[in-house]
Design goal:
about 210 residues, about 20% strand, single chain, 5 strands
Length: about 210
């Protein structure tokens, strides 16, 4: 091998090493999907939630007899969760610390393009984030809600709000409505992590039937 060829080989090897090191550093520095807050305690909107794990979509769901919606108004609720939390749930049937769940609310429509029947999703109306941060929200059992009308940082929802009491009283797992996530409910059943309140609701519903 000539000196010039040897020099070129060394240079190429060095460039490859630098490239691999840079790639490793980039992977190490990639931010994980975790809750972020402003200095005044507001939560920053997780703008990349659409790249997370999709759990389910409900249409015109309401936990009361009166939904408050007109007959021509339709709403889609789609739920996404960060990948690390989803993977942990698969193993344990519980949500780990730093779980972030996003409920995306969108308008439904019938008339559009070639559609003749049924509903499809259109504009986003808002989003609700349900986050588990045990150190920050110790007083509320580690969980908190944040409502977003847009993508500006949002204040924490009052812990006494009716929606939170509903989650605490009827959620299947860890104050989350796993009963509406068809890919996760079987895991919770297998891991025996279903809440006593949820099991009571199911028993009462079965008795009514």
């Amino acid at each position: 091998m000539t000196i010039s060829a040897r020099t070129a080989l060394v240079a190429a090897s060095g460039a490859l090493s630098v490239g691999l090191a840079f790639a490793a550093a980039s992977r190490a520095e990639a931010p994980a999907a975790a809750p972020r807050y402003t200095a005044d305690g507001k939560m920053e909107f997780p703008k990349d939630y659409r790249t997370w794990v999709y759990l389910s979509t409900g249409m015109d769901m309401s936990y009361s007899e009166n939904s408050g919606q007109g007959p021509d108004q339709h709403i889609f609720d789609s739920v996404f969760v960060n990948r690390a939390a989803y993977d942990a749930f698969q193993k344990t049937g519980h949500w780990p610390d730093k779980t972030v769940m996003v409920l995306e609310v969108r308008k439904g429509a019938t008339k559009g393009s070639i559609n003749k029947h049924g509903q499809f999703q259109t504009d986003r109306l808002g989003a609700e984030v349900h986050v588990k941060d045990e150190a920050r929200f110790k007083a509320t059992g580690g969980w908190a809600f944040f409502g977003f009308g847009d993508e500006q940082p949002a204040k924490m929802t009052n812990p006494g709000a009716g929606c939170i009491r509903c989650h605490e009283g009827h959620a299947a797992v860890d104050t989350t409505f796993v009963q509406f996530y068809p890919m996760l409910l079987p895991i919770a059943k297998a891991k025996n992590t279903l809440s006593a309140n949820y099991l009571k609701d199911e028993a009462e519903g079965a008795a009514v039937k």
